[in-house]
Amino acid sequence: MIKTICVSAGIIRNPKGEILIGRRQSGGSCGELWEFPGGKQEPGETPGDCLIRECQEELGCTPAFEKTPCATITHTYPDVCVHLIFFNGTLPLEDNVQCRAHKALKWVLPVQLTTYSFCPADQQLIEQLAKH
Questions:
Q1: Exposed, middle or buried, 115 (CB in 10 Å: 0-12/13-18/19+)?
Q2: Which residues are paired to 84 by β-bridges?
Q3: Residue 12 to residues 4, 29, 37, 77, 91, Cα–Cα distance (Å)
Q4: Is the CB of residue 87 less than 8 Å from the CB of residue 70?
Q5: ∠45-59-51 over CA atoms, to 5°?
Q6: 9 three-class SS
Q7: Residue range(s) defining the domain that contains residue 89
Q8: What is the pLDDT of residues 9-56, one digit of tens each?
Q9: Which helix (H) or strand (E) covers residue 123, if one does?
Q10: What CATH number is attached to the domain comprising 19?
Q11: pLDDT of 86
């Protein structure tokens, strides 16, 4: 039986309308691919609390997130099933984002998202965001 993990991720926008994406470190699952900031939920943690904790740990900042998820995606990889819960969020331009966990961070316009290689689980959302 394949293990299922729950992951919270943020679609964080700045006042210019750009979205923050992070490039995963080499090795491991989806190494070198791009993703939205976030991470695995810990036991007893709500999806929203998880996302705030992950942003504080990985980015050194606390974006303002909507309370209700904007999308959920379940994707099965060969070794794990990932249930992703996405939240829209904002971050002022003057807030400094620190690259603590990713190989790189970038602010990109939604139409540019399709030019980056994302984890397979994110692909459906990438196409939707790029159209709007």
A1: exposed
A2: 7, 73
A3: 25, 23, 8, 25, 7
A4: yes
A5: 20
A6: strand
A7: 3-131
A8: 999 999 999 999 999 999 888 999 999 999 999 999 999 999 999 999
A9: helix 123-131
A10: 3.90.79.10
A11: 98
Cα 46 to Cα 8, 34, 76, distances in angstroms: 9, 24, 22
How open is the CA angle 59-105-125, to the nearest 5 degrees?
Answer: 95
pTM here? 0.94
| 111-120 pLDDT per residue, tens | 999 999 999 9
* Percentage of residues of the chain with pLDDT beyond 90: 91
pLDDT in the model for residue 132: 74
The SS3 of residue 74 is strand
**The total number of structural domains that make up the chain:** 1
Q: What tokens does 119 get?
A: 């984890």
Coil vs helix vs strand at 31 = coil
